[in-house]
């Protein structure tokens, strides 16, 4: 036993157990987000319920099952009644009901129709046989007939008549609408395309800004700077910069980039538009620059570690063949250290795509009427505010009064955000593997 302790075996097993525990928790979280996120758009059947014998049957969608809290042995169902046929109910209190098993009718009417409106409303009613060229007719539980103009109806289907294959086709169509449409003014409705587009453009712009500065700084520190107190102070500053809270970096970006640099640009190039700011207001470019400064230490440290792993014999061999230091660095050192540089870029992209706190101060908004890239000259509008998936997730989870929709929507947006980060990292990973095979280097 003493020899076992002296060999360090307990620490090996402890480290392995901690690693397995972290991986297990991560996989459980990923499985939870995936399962909950994929359920959000699946077409569920509509059921009938009748509160009293004097009232007419109503249509609804079963949300979840729960036990009674009054001490009685009975099962309750939370039912989504949908929106009003006349106007959207601003309060979720009138939309959701707790019913007992006796109030839930066994029949699932085949003519029950679900209607999605362009304004974000979801309607449950009975379909009428007549279909005119300008209106879609529905019948409420009280027998009242309502005509909906076709230009207001986005989609409609009969949930209780769908086969599994039809549900899958409808599910994919709803996902396409969710990923390509703009959000509605009602919280939790519509699509998230502006948020996806804004996140992607911001991350790519941040990568373009941080990569050259991070690589050049790492090359200077490792290849040119001597081992003195100044170099040690610079490295310490870089390490401390990595520990600054992101919200503090957002405050710095707002004060320096937006007000100082942006205000100076307005006074130099846009004086005729003052006092209305052009660049002196939060926007895409300042958000990307703030995140570039936030992730700069990651790129510097990863690149410098890659440079340190290269054998010194390769540099000496290049010098022996008559190459200068600059030629050695750019033709021998940098190509072989490229995988480490891409490793730093992967870490920077993963962190930048998930940041929310600094973006709230330097450019992200709840709703942006215009995209930062469009067909209007000069086509790329760096001064515009933009939407972001991380902030959209925060807004859907904490600013939506409908908690039932918010919970499901948070998991769905989180799944999209994780997928986007995975695709960005996968692209950089494949490029890194290609460079590794080219130079036969494992860092």
Automatic annotation (TrEMBL):
Chief location bin: membrane
Positions of transmembrane segments: 12-33, 195-221, 241-262, 283-302, 405-431
Domain ABC transmembrane type-1 intervals: 196-428
Highest taxon listed in the record's lineage: Bacteria
Matching InterPro entries: MetI-like (IPR000515), MetI-like_sf (IPR035906), Phosphate_PstA (IPR005672)
Compartment(s): Cell inner membrane; Cell membrane
UniProt family annotation: Belongs to the binding-protein-dependent transport system permease family. CysTW subfamily.
NCBIfam families: 3a0107s02c
Name of this protein: Phosphate transport system permease protein PstA
Gene it is expressed from: pstA
């Amino acid at each position: 036993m003493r020899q076992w302790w002296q060999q360090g075996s307990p620490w090996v097993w402890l480290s392995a157990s901690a690693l397995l525990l972290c991986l297990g928790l991560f996989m459980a979280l990923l499985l939870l987000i995936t399962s909950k996120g994929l359920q959000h758009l699946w077409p569920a059947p509509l059921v009938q319920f009748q509160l009293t014998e004097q009232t007419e049957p109503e249509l609804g969608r079963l949300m979840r099952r729960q036990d009674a809290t009054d001490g009685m042995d009975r099962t309750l169902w939370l039912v989504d009644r949908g929106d009003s046929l006349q106007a959207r109910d601003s309060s979720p209190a009138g939309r959701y009901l707790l019913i007992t098993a006796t109030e839930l009718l066994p029949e699932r009417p085949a003519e029950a129709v679900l209607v999605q409106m362009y304004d974000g409303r979801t309607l449950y009613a009975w379909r009428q046989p007549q279909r005119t060229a300008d209106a879609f007719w529905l019948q409420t539980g009280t027998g009242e007939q309502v005509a909906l103009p076709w230009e207001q109806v986005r989609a409609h289907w009969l949930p209780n008549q769908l086969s599994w294959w039809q549900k899958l086709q409808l599910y994919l169509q709803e996902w396409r609408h969710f990923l390509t449409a703009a959000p509605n003014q009602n919280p939790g409705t519509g699509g998230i395309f502006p948020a996806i587009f804004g996140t992607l453009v911001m991350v790519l712009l941040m990568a373009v800004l941080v990569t050259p500065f991070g690589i050049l700084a790492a090359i200077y520190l490792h290849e040119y700077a001597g081992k003195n107190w100044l170099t040690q102070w610079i490295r310490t500053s870089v390490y401390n910069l990595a520990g600054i809270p992101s919200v503090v970096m957002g405050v710095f970006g707002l004060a320096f980039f937006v007000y100082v640099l942006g205000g100076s640009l307005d006074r130099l190039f846009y004086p005729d538009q003052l006092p209305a700011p052009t660049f002196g207001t939060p926007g895409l470019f300042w958000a990307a620059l703030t995140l570039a400064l936030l992730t700069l230490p990651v790129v510097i440290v990863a690149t410098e570690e890659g440079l340190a792993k290269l054998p010194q014999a390769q540099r000496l061999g290049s010098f022996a063949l008559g190459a200068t230091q600059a030629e050695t660095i750019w033709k021998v050192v940098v190509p072989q250290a490229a995988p480490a540089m891409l490793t730093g870029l992967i870490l920077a992209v993963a962190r930048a795509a998930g940041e929310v706190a600094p973006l709230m101060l330097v450019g992200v908004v709840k709703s942006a009427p215009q995209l930062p890239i469009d067909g209007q000259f000069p086509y790329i509008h760096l001064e515009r505010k933009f939407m972001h998936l991380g902030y959209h997730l925060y807004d859907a989870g904490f600013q939506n009064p409908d908690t039932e929709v918010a919970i499901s929507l948070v998991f769905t947006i989180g799944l999209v955000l994780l997928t986007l980060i995975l695709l960005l990292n996968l692209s950089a990973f494949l490029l890194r593997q290609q460079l590794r095979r080219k130079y036969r280097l494992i860092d």
